[in-house]
Amino acid sequence: MNFILELHIFHYMSKKPEETMHHISFFSISLCCCLFFLIIPHENFSTITAISVDIINQTCRKCADESHVFSYDLCTTSLQAVPVSHVANLQGLALIAMELALNNASNTLQIIKNLLMSNGSLDPFVVVCLKDCLQLYSDGITTLEDAEGAFLGEHYDNANIWLSAVMEASSTCEEGFKEKEGEVLPSPLTNENYNLFQLCDIALCIGHLLTSGSTLLMRSSAT
Asked: Residue 52 in contact with residue 45, Cβ under 8 Å?
């Protein structure tokens, strides 16, 4: 239970009060589903940590080997930077990636709003693109919540569909800045779009591993 609780506290601590209220019902659902994740005895913590780091590396490597757009480095550094990842199984790693994606999307939404407030210094085309991105990210946050709910219910196929939709939204946001005829405008959200895409791709890849009966799943369950 501590695993899920700490993970969601990590997510909610990064939110503004009004955003936190929006997530209350989902937080309650997550707590009800907490037994879905492993609970590590304290005396085995050091051993499990080593095994979990190995699972992170193996998972990220397998995903990178299967996709030329998947970033092994971002996968390992992102997951290992979250303390609870060191006591997580494969399912837990996917949820961590989704929580990181939600945090990214929420932060990016605020960045977009701040940029639009200073639109007097922006190219009018960029303002239009930012407004499109604002809608894409607003919808993306809701879609990520739906993906987490589906994942917690072990409806991996549904979760994968919604994760793919968020990845497409980040790509659409980025590509929008390149559509001005006769001029290439730099996107002010390149890093944010890339990170959201990659974080969703981590969860998506793990979802595929879970539905395909990967040997990584067998090993993580054994821990």
From this structure: no
Tokens (6 digits) for 136: 């894409």
Distance of CA 131 to the CA centre of its chain: 22
Tracing tokens 């809701």 back to the chain, one arrives at: 142
Q: Are 178 and 146 in contact (CB under 8 A)?
A: no
Report d(CA 168, CA 162) in Å as an integer.
10
For the whole model, what pTM was predicted?
A: 0.77
Task: Note the pLDDT tens digit of each residue in 54-86.
Answer: 899 999 999 999 999 999 999 999 999 999 888
| C-alpha–C-alpha distance, residues 70 and 63, integer Å | 7
Query: What is the phi/psi pair of residue 94, to 5°?
Result: -65, -40
- Residue count of the chain, please give it: 223
